[in-house]
Fold this sequence. Notes:
By secondary structure, this protein is mainly α. Helix content is about 75%, strand content about 0%. The radius of gyration is 19 Å and the shape is globular.
Amino acid sequence: MLIKLLKYELKRLIINKFFLGLLIISAIYSYEVMTSDIILGVANTAPFSGWSYGEYFAKVLPILLVTLLFFISFLYSKQEKNVQDLTNATPIDQFKFQMLRFGTIIIGFVLISMIPILYSVWFYSVNFHFLSFGGLVMPAFITLVPSMLFVFGIGSLGGRYHQGLIFGLMVVVLLINYVPLPYEVDLFGGNFFEQYPMSLSVVEPAFLIPISVVIGKFIFGLTGLLMIILSATTKKR
Length: 237
């Protein structure tokens, strides 16, 4: 039963013109960021360094997170409310069903995120003959995952109270990347990837994340995960 529901939810989320449009926007923006901000390297490091790659995702991340919030907003539309009224009348465990729908959204986010990832693989291999992508997994992971969980948590929890809160959060996501935050609370990491290597006074410093930044990312991710669980158990007002 749950497998059939998962396939149904994925089909509704992915097979539509809206999702295709988001894929195109993500591809265009990835191209713009890579060819304008990253191609010369960040903080005097190589374009394919962990610092430059982290900055690449920090700049692409607002578009990805706005996409994530669009997906979440679908759950709280009037049309979805009618669907929920039907599911509430069935013997389906509502917590499992909500988590299944959240899982569908995460799958959609992963698919959208593959666009900048695949483009960067193509760009680095073609322009720099760079194929050692193992060292770039960490900056990508620590940029994408905690931010996704935290924004997902706020969006899903806020959406249970009012759908408009999700659209307000989209504006915050687009603007916050321009605010110079301390490294520990720099959710996207743009300030960290751009400024921290300069403070090391080393030419082409090795990619290394301070423990305080790791703790900050862990707290963001854990808080987001708790909010996701809470939103799946709280009745909509």
